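Intended use. Records like the one below are meant for learning the mapping from a protein sequence to its folded structure. Do not use them to infer anything beyond what is encoded.
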Amino acid sequence: MKNCRTIDLGRIAYSEAAVLQQRLVDARKMGAAPDLLLFCEHPPVITLGRNGKREHLRVSDDLLRQTGVEFHHTNRGGDITYHGPGQIVGYPVLDLTGIRRDVVWYVRQLEECMIRATSSFGIRAFRVAGRTGVWVKGTAAGDADSAHEAKLAAIGVHISRWVTSHGFAYNVSTDLCFFDLIIPCGIMGCRATSLETLLGVSVSRAEAIARLSAAFGEVFGLELIRADAADLGGWLAGEAEPVGVPVR
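Structure written out for the chain above:
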């Protein structure tokens, strides 16, 4: 079974994470870095994908600044989305040459990871035809039988020479009010929800990451090995990989 190092970067600015990802993608292409799954959380930021439309931002730049929300154009696929505290962002840096060179398959697998992780909390999540991401019925605890669909997780990826970057955003305890600043994913009437809103109880970040990690390993057939942010410098400098600790 192939290995994949997993690292929790904690809270990190979006721009800093973007630069780090690009450096790691370059290192992965050269074989200097292993397959990686980075987890992090961003301060409030709205990002617009390469296929996105600026008019899907509902407010002015001045209002964004007043609310302390950054705005960034990005080279990932997809439209507009929000990242912020309480949301787990996953950035896989994988060489799909050794896994499967199929972009659509890769995106469906990311969806499957989050569907399985959500199921482990007792919530049925699913895909919606023609709409990338992970969806649920209802928006809050006790509303699971509602006919309304709400988006729990978003996906936007970039692939260069079959090495992946960007990834997914999974709402755990996210302040959903920030989604009112945008038309989420460019879908009119789209409503966002979070794991804690659906469950009606708090969920620790560590628990959510553990379940996402387990599902990621299962879906991609990878053994996840815990590493530390300090190890990144070694990979970027072309040094030997640390042994790491298997994720259990």
